[in-house]
Amino acid sequence: MSDNPRKNRIAFRPILGDLRLEERVVLNAASATRAALAAQVSTFDTSGGLQAGQLGVGNITARQLSATTRQQLRAARTSLRQFVNEQLATLRSDPANLDARGRLTPEALSTFNANVAGAINATTLRLSTQLSLLPGSGRRLVPALQNSLLGGRNNSLTSRISNLVNSGRFNRSQAAFGNAINRQINAAFANNSARLNNFFRTTPLNRLSLDQATGQRIPLSQFVSNQALNQINNTFGTLANSVAGNAQSSLFNSSGAFNPQGVTGFQQQFSNALGTAAFQLGNVLSAFPNAMTTLGPQLQSALFGTGNDPVTGQPVTSFTNGLSGLFPTGTGTGTTPLTLNGFNTGFQTAFTNAFQNFSTPLNSFFGVTPTTGPGGSFQLPSGFFQSNATFPSAFGPQFTGSTFNNGFNNGFLTTGTGFPGFGTAPTGFNTGFGTGFNSFIGNANQQFGFTQPTFGTGTGLGTGTSLGTGSTFPTTGGTTTTGGSFM
User: 372 — phi, psi (to 5°)?
Assistant: First the structure.
């Protein structure tokens, strides 16, 4: 170190932050840090000699990831602010929500508060899904983000907005109320932006890009791609494993007899859950340039395709058609009464076929050869339809337990692992939470280019409302968010 006191005071000092000792790197100049972040990763062989430069993924640098995640954080803030402002305008426009003095009633404020909390929950799912792709993000970055938005302490975004709503200070003016909420959103996202900046400034992403199986260092592009595929498999694995239990309660009575009247509602529940899975998928692919442009039409068809393929004349192989095909006449009545075992077997077969069709363009984009089973048949990733199998959630444990909005993020289950919101809400659950969650996701899916059929009003997923055209508080009718690009 120089003997000059002034130089010592202004010398570059890297912030080590939350890095463990063995993960820290010695930085001798700010320019070295910038050069490391800008360095291109080498090409890698992921399947039969196919190089990264030939894949849809390409070579992703730390600098690109930094720019992308910052953009996603800004987009999430914009989408949440627009959603809240639209919901507040809708709230005020209905005379039933106003008392004799023209102020919002306690009941209207309570449901609005739950509605906004549901949208914040969906926003947290969005950002957690994206940030979890980054090496080292699971230790502090993602948990801190979730606590700052959803935590039970007074400094979380949900708590701050709830305090605003309950205070009644801004009840007379829609503009003042909206501005007060927007200030809280801006403050929460400013803090998370600072966390994100510190993460990229202090975390050696390339050094932490390790293969989970071997512990060997791999290129950053390969690490992010592996994380993306793992998240997609976890999302659809949890969805697949959640269907049987919900079908049993929705489609069959206690003696096992099939209830045809429950078909339409259950199809809508499944469609809403599939919309949430599509939302998570779109968030993952947002980290990869041109991913949605390249894959969007194929994924739309694989997720929500209905009717017959004009080329083959056979039903489109999709998750939506796979479930609908179990009820040939549209009412669930057939020559042979449907049993729970028959439903489960048929659903597993249909889901497997749909998942193969869905994963084919994804595997091609990421340059992955899918696992095959006996005789060369397609094999689902481990855990699908297996008893007691669980998949890692994007949410931390404190947000997947039964105490968080009656277990919404765990499918309202008291034991086991369920899909977010996919299930029958218990007594006392404020359905405004599910409405806000569904509506926010519906708006986001429209931006992704995902549209889905509507089957009717179900009883699960908070309110059973349709994504994209789902109800918004306090009246029915869709909302459209035009700002906040995902790409």
Answer: -110, 150
Question: According to the model, what pLDDT value does residue 449 have?
Answer: 92
Contacts of 478 (CB under 8 A, 6+ apart): 439, 442, 468, 469, 470, 472
HSE-CB of 170 using CA atoms within 13 angstroms: 17
The whole-angstrom separation of Cα 8 and Cα 52 is 44
CB atoms near residue 328 (< 10 Å): 12
- For helices 106-131 and 62-93, angle between their N-to-C axes, nearest 10 degrees: 170
**How crowded is residue 378: how many other Cβ atoms within 10 Å of its Cβ?**
15
**Element holding 46 (H helix, E strand):** strand 45-47
Both structure tokens of 210: 């390790």
Residue 377 CB partners (closer than 8 Å, separation 6+): none
Alpha-carbon distance of 262 to 168, in angstroms, equals 42
**Cα separation of 75 and 480, whole Å?**
15
pLDDT value at position 456?
66
> SS3 for 459?
coil
Contact 423, 462 (CB under 8 A): no
In the chain the domains, ranked by start, together with CATH numbers, are 62-202 (1.20.120), 220-448 (no CATH)
Q: Which two tokens stand for residue 195?
A: 């966390």
Residue of 287, 329, 11, 247 lying closest to 126 (CA atoms)? 287
User: Which of 12-21, 257-266, 313-322, 350-359 shows the lowest per-residue confidence on average (mean pLDDT)?
Assistant: 12-21
**For 139-144, what is the mean pLDDT?**
96
247 is written with which tokens?
A: 């079908």
Going by C-alpha positions, the residue among 372, 347, 161, 340 that lies closest to residue 248 is 340
* pTM attached to this predicted model: 0.82
* Integer Cα distance of 406 and 403 in angstroms: 5
